[in-house]
């Protein structure tokens, strides 16, 4: 079983872990019945429902009302104004052969290619396939697909389109035995991947390169990234669940436009599943997400979720997503720097009153040198945040730990042979090293030299009563949504004390403009800026607030 398939079997157990203060935060809103019904669905339609269309219209109106002057995006890959780099320079088969030298070559004409490339035995390794201009299809069955072999190249002429006809589930698969594949200059559309799966590199194979492609109106995710994958200069637009997902080690995602994904509004039929947005990463390591334009996605822009390590999220423009710009959840070691982040979380923020819904949400995540030295001192630094629903929230769910009710049935990475689902669910939990190593911790996080600007009239429904304009360092009293683990040591104020005073979390040298509020220690405990800066909290040394 491929790594992608193995993770797919449990990935939807991880979900946004936060609720209003009156609710036990670890409780899951989704029932097993709903999960079973949706997971059993064969296809996920890439077309918008009327509700999704209405929400997108609302988001567009909100952006217009904000009137902010955003910087130029790092790269425009979609639409009429897309960068010329997106246009294939390979106007002839001979040009493609010269650019992509290989052992053999196949010229693929437009039309039905099911007898040429739509069956596994037709594809040979170390072959360059050149797609002529026009629309290409690969057969009429659900499992018509291109099964790539090692070192294959698939490159498009100007106007080359690979169309799934709203019938084929996948465009490019490999069964995990097709490394080092290149896919460039193709429009890939109308594939209907099942929920939680992907259209391109379905099996998360290693060494794939996807560049200058237009992947749109597909089911599931448009692509999956595995070990040593590179995705750059792609338009990932209007896909039903995600723009893409990451499962690999050493992955680079640069200069892409990631827009209008979750077009099927997956969360509406799976409340609280945490399973849609611009992108999601699972158990990935050493990932660079830089110089991307991430905008107008339903749900979260960039979501790093569950046992990821070593992410550099820098120099992106992230705007107009209905939920947070960035979530870093139950993961480790990050560097979130020099991003421009504007007008995010208007919808999620208003609908989830009672929680400090932020633009950047650090949830049970932080630096730990035991899982890697890169970014062991994690930071959120030198970002510009303009008219988002909130700022930065550092949160640690008191009830979320390995074997706990909010633990998603997986365990931490810091001491994997000792801290296991079994030992963390036993009476050992209250002793060392289990009391520390069974938890994902928000620790060793520095939030510094950021600019936070908020004009409430630019953010509809933005009032203090609606919890708009918050920056927070909080947990909640520990409790058990169901049966407690034996000897559960995290009850009461244990976690609130640790995240606030003992886990090396600091805000400093930030600039706040607007009516910002500050939450500390326990969810919904608001204090003044002077109280936030003063003893015993001592946050935001060197920072300024201009109301």
Describe the structure.
By secondary structure, this protein is an alpha/beta fold. Helix content is about 15%, strand content about 30%. It has a domain at about 5-70 and about 240-545. The chain contains ten helices and 40 strands. The strands form four sheets. A 14-stranded parallel sheet has the order 2-4-7-10-13-16-19-22-25-28-31-34-37-40, with no helix packed on it. The chain is globular. The model is unreliable at about 10-15 and about 20-45 (pLDDT under 50).
Strand content: 25-35%
Q: Helix count, per DSSP? A: 10
Class computed from helices, strands and strand pairing? alpha/beta
Poorly predicted runs? 9-16, 18-46
Distance between the termini: 56 Å
- Principal-axes shape call: globular
**What is the helix fraction of residues, given as a range?**
10-25%
Largest sheet: 14 strands, parallel
Multimeric organization: single chain
What is the number of strand segments? 40
Mean pLDDT: 89
> Major sheet: order of its strands?
2-4-7-10-13-16-19-22-25-28-31-34-37-40
Radius of gyration: 23 Å
Record keyword descriptors for this entry.
10 helices; alpha/beta; globular; 13-stranded parallel beta sheet
